[in-house]
């Protein structure tokens, strides 16, 4: 797929700016705080309806305005598509394809595919398990948009179940000495209520687990192969899904039963802690290099190689599943790679993956990159 143009209106520090992309690689160059990352963020929003930076939509809309818009013209194998995302400071969003408003935001996902790689992605290796879950969930959302709905359902059930556990915890005699009496508005808690939530949690949770397991099964060999190629040495990467409920086979009934069994095992601990201890919200994705956890392993360079391998694997996997190469968004990372890794990346993307790159200076780029790129200067949202 090819992003032909982007139009930002009242988005971040952009008042009204149209950008035409005229080469497979575009370098956005400018000083700090000029709007380079904002532009990539706009593309990320069109791809996933999420931004890894913003919490609230009011931060995305130009300060002092109540409404902002990101629009794009995308060329896909099936033909051109117009995407429009309208953001409001009150949080209400609307999306449209080819000027037709969509009733469900779900239908907007998966139209534009993009892989983003920024220096924040080092958190994938260094950060807590929630970073890896969020990464995996975002990838799944692009590959199978329905996953966004499944995950939402799971999180909804999880919140309800947690509220119930908390409520019960506060009613136990030793807890009531220290905690305020339960709120009068709390949910009705009858015998059997928890069991109902257990069944729902296991049903929704096992759908999440099975999809995550399946996608990692496809991604892992790609990442491992890239890692070998980039590190060019005897370092062996292993990517492994470590679900909280152990999966022995990809069978819905089996996974649900294992889930329910685990809930039984942890029942007393859950009562005590007043929160759900079993389920995909506590899963881990493990990265090991020569059998040592990558988080503890070695240098920044090695961690960067690992993230680069993961990103290249994502590109490939999306291309395989979607049938078209996704966009690659490189936010400030290229200058951090040594020339050898820069070249490996260049070889990997060729002109197949349209790439948007931000940088504060062109000096660190290989002539090959500069000669084959469209170069745009970004200054104060223009
Ligand atoms: P760096 O090189 O430091 O990464 P950058 O060019 O990537 O810089 P961006 O993050 O794209 O910078 O833009 C940051 C600028 O956008 C800041 O000046 C910030 O104040 C401004 N900005 C962010 N959100 C809004 C908003 N809602 N309204 C107006 N300006 C905003
Ligand atoms: Mg930036």
From TrEMBL:
One Pfam assignment: SMC_N
Binding site residues for ATP: 30-37
Keywords: ATP-binding, Cytoplasm, DNA damage, DNA repair, DNA replication, DNA-binding, Nucleotide-binding, SOS response
Residues of the RecF/RecN/SMC N-terminal domain: 2-361
Compartments where found: Cytoplasm
Cited CDD domains: ABC_RecF (cd03242)
Keyword RNA-binding (UniProt): no
Chief site of localization: cytoplasm
Domain of life of the source: Bacteria
SUPFAM superfamilies linked: P-loop containing nucleoside triphosphate hydrolases (SSF52540)
Protein's job: The RecF protein is involved in DNA metabolism; it is required for DNA replication and normal SOS inducibility. RecF binds preferentially to single-stranded, linear DNA. It also seems to bind ATP.
Protein name in the entry: DNA replication and repair protein RecF
Gene from which this protein is expressed: recF
């Amino acid at each position: 797929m090819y992003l032909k143009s982007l139009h930002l209106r009242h988005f971040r520090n952009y008042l009204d700016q149209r950008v035409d992309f005229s080469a497979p690689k575009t370098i956005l160059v400018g000083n700090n705080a000029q709007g380079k990352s904002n532009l990539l963020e706009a593309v990320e929003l069109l791809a996933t309806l999420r931004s890894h930076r913003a919490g609230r939509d009011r931060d995305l809309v130009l300060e002092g305005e109540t409404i902002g818009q990101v629009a794009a013209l995308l060329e896909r194998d099936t033909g051109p598509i117009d995407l429009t995302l309208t953001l409001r400071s009150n949080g209400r969003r609307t999306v449209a394809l080819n000027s037709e408003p969509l009733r469900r935001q779900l239908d907007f996902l998966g139209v534009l595919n993009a892989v983003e790689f920024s220096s924040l992605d080092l958190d994938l290796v260094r950060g807590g398990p929630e970073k890896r879950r969020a990464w995996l969930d975002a990838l799944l959302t692009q590959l199978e948009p329905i996953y966004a709905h499944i995950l939402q359902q799971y999180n909804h059930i999880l919140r309800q179940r947690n509220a119930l556990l908390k409520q019960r915890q506060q009613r136990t005699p030793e807890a009531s000495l220290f905690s305020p009496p339960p709120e009068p508005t709390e949910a009705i808690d009858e015998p059997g209520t928890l069991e109902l939530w257990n069944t729902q949690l296991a049903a929704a949770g096992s759908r999440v687990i099975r999809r995550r397991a399946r996608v990692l099964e496809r991604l892992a060999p790609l990442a491992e192969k890239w890692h070998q190629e980039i590190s060019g040495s005897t370092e062996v990467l292993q990517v492994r899904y470590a679900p909280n409920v152990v999966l022995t086979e990809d069978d819905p009934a089996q996974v649900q039963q294992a889930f329910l069994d685990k809930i039984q095992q942890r029942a007393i601990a859950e009562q005590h802690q007043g929160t759900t201890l079993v389920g995909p919200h506590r899963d881990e994705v493990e990265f090991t290099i020569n059998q040592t956890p990558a988080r503890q392993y070695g240098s920044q360079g090695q961690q960067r190689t690992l993230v680069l391998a993961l990103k290249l694997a994502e590109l490939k996997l999306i291309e395989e599943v979607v049938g078209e190469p996704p966009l690659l968004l490189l936010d400030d990372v290229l200058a951090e790679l040594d020339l050898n890794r820069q070249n490996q990346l260049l070889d990997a993307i060729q002109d197949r993956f349209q790439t948007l790159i931000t940088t504060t200076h062109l000096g660190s780029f290989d002539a090959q990159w500069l000669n084959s790129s469209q170069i745009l200067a970004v200054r104060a949202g223009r």
